[in-house]
What we know:
alpha/beta, 5-stranded parallel sheet, 54% helix
Amino acid sequence: MISNKNSSKLKFRKSIKELKDIFSKLKFFEPNIDKIIDVFFKTLSNNGKIFICGNGGSAAEAEHLSTEFLVRLRPEINRRSLPIINLGMNTSYLTACANDYDFDDVFKRSLSSLVDKGDLLWCLSTSGKSKNILKVLKYAKQNKIQTIGFLGNNGGEAKKYVDLKIIVPSKNTARIQEIHQFIGHFILEQTENLLIKNYRNKKFI
């Protein structure tokens, strides 16, 4: 029992160190983070929508980040709902599309029916290799839809199709997702601050 406890402690400390090492490299993302904040601000200021998608844990993150703007990000700030829309939608849509067409089409099909000029696509993928992510990114490129990619490892094939990217330098899926969530929250907070500052007199809050 004691040896198991010691083993768990060592693994826990190793995970903390691994996360700290990644955090120490985040300063290199600052230029792209600033650009993404600017793009989010301009998209929403011009009544555009942000569409977000991911698979597995990244799907959960996409749903989480979408909710932060559709509902509320910070309890002390009440403002109107902002359109960050999860392309995964719901189980009925996902299973129907996968069954009637192909799972590779689940993001592309919903985007194609909802997107308008000036909208933005935000993809989360730890590997950058998911076929449905690649398919929606290629569709976006063909239709001149601006794209943001939160990726991991070396970015995979997806990095070729995104306009602005954050590639977390890790092969550990959990660590990549944790960094995606941290940066996503920071970007949304700063975007919200800009919107409030610039539109305080237009009933934004």
